Amino acid sequence: MSLPSYLRYIFTEIKAPLSFKITYAAEKFLKIPFMFVQRVFKKKVSMPYLFTNDYVLENRWGKWKIKAYSDYDYSINPMHEKGLESVFTGCRGIFLDIGAHIGKWSIVAGRTAKKAYAFEPTPEPYKYLLQNISLNGLTGKVVPVNKGVSSSRGEMTFEISPTNSSMSKIVQASTDAPTLTIPTTSIDEFLKEENIAFSDIELVKIDVEGHEFEVLKGMKHLLQQAKRIRIICEILPEQVEKAEIIRWMESLHFKTHELPTGNDFLFEK
What we know:
CATH topology of the largest domain: Rossmann fold
Strand order of the largest sheet: 5-4-3-10-11-13-12
Number of helices: 11
CATH architecture of the largest domain: 3-Layer(aba) Sandwich
Largest sheet: 7 strands, mixed
Number of strands: 13
Shape: globular
Helix content: 25-40%
Number of domains: 2
Radius of gyration: 19 Å
Low-confidence stretches: none
Distance between the termini: 32 Å
CATH class of the largest domain: Alpha Beta
Strand content: 15-25%
């Protein structure tokens, strides 16, 4: 995102006193050289955070409880994943948000959807997800689910990213990063347990940092039986299963569209 567009967002779209906007802008731009070092050298460095207490940030998408000393505000910036908003704002059926983090798309889609289910296994983002659902008056409409999603029910090792909480992920091998054991479910099993009809599912978002294919395998019955459904799925360019995922979805009679973000695909039928 360009400097002018970011400044425009801060000073025209964020609903807050000018003093808040100035502090917010200063914190963002003070962090740039530190983020460069972090990205290039793959090392966590101490960031110059100016907000020492949690705060509420309001923009056109809603109100967001943001953790101090965190990257959480980045995830609800309208310029992040730009171009996807129109997909989520028109949902009228049930929305499944797999990898909900602090609830951006759950909140956006939840305003018009019949119901949204927000799956987030990490304890800290899940805490803020709960607060954001309440802040936006969507308790009961957006249902938080503190589980990971995979191809089956069980438990898996979850790696907590030391630099970006939204990039935490399920891992198969040992890692130097902090980990925890999380319960997992499959979407087919979850819908059966909750007595949710496949025909009610209109939209699914999958953003699970490389575990997308396992999530899709665990919703095979839904994909086979649903007559009309859209799946927004992040597939990073370096993912070895990228071509396999696309072939598998097309074998289930889904049309494939690559979205402008470069990392997201829309599968629909």
